[in-house]
Design a protein that fits this description.
This protein is α/β, with parallel strands linked by helices. The protein has a single domain, classed as UDP N-Acetylglucosamine Acyltransferase, domain 1. It contains 2 helices and 19 strands. The protein has a 7-stranded mixed β-sheet with strand order 2-5-8-13-16-18-19. A 5-stranded parallel β-sheet has the order 1-4-7-12-15, with helices on one face. β18 and β19 form a beta hairpin. The termini are far apart.
């Protein structure tokens, strides 16, 4: 009984912390947001930007590379590890999950697997990346795609589930994404 009470109290504090992080997402300055997200455990590379209204589930498992942009209204599930490479861009409303429920388990237990997204990747709006996926350097995920399997470097994928559409023509990737605007 006492263990149940202690667990319930821990869950309340955890939920309160997630609510505070949602409020942090409303701060108009990306410098202030980045400060509070770092306090919560997100690891940022130099020049990384997280736009407004981004949500986290356990931010301690999230690492964002140099000069990477996470668009508005994205969701990053840090219960396992999410590693986003450098010079990578997430458009708006991208969802990255690294945990799911085992629908065949009698207790419906959670199963986690890390997600790795390479350097110079572009993820289009409303794309969903599921647990255990690795997206290679320079890959492109089209808008609305549901990525259930690994994406090779330089591939362009789209659809539900995501399938290869073609290869990316640009091979020598060395661009920088640029600065963040105040109200993004």
């Amino acid at each position: 009984m006492i263990n149940k009470i202690i667990t319930r109290i821990k869950n309340y504090f955890g939920d309160f912390g997630l609510m505070l992080l949602r409020w942090v997402g409303l701060i108009p300055s990306h410098h202030c947001r980045r400060f509070f997200y770092r306090l919560a455990g997100v690891k940022f590379g130099q020049g990384a930007t997280i736009h407004m209204w981004v949500n986290f589930f356990d931010p301690r498992g999230v690492t964002v590379g140099d000069d990477t942009i996470i668009g508005d209204h994205c969701f990053l599930d840090g219960r396992d590890r999410i590693k986003v490479g450098s010079h990578t861009a997430f458009a708006s409303q991208v969802l990255v999950y690294n945990a799911k429920h085992d629908i065949n388990d009698p207790d419906f237990k959670a199963v986690t697997a890390p997600v790795e997204i390479g350097d110079y990747v572009f993820v289009g709006p409303r794309a969903i990346i599921l647990p255990g996926v690795k997206i290679g350097r320079g890959a492109v995920v089209a808008a609305g795609a549901v990525v259930t399997k690994d994406v090779a470097p330089g591939e362009v994928v789209g659809g539900v589930p995501a399938k290869k559409i073609k290869g990316r023509e640009l091979k020598d990737l060395h661009y920088r994404l640029g600065r963040a605007r105040l109200f993004q």
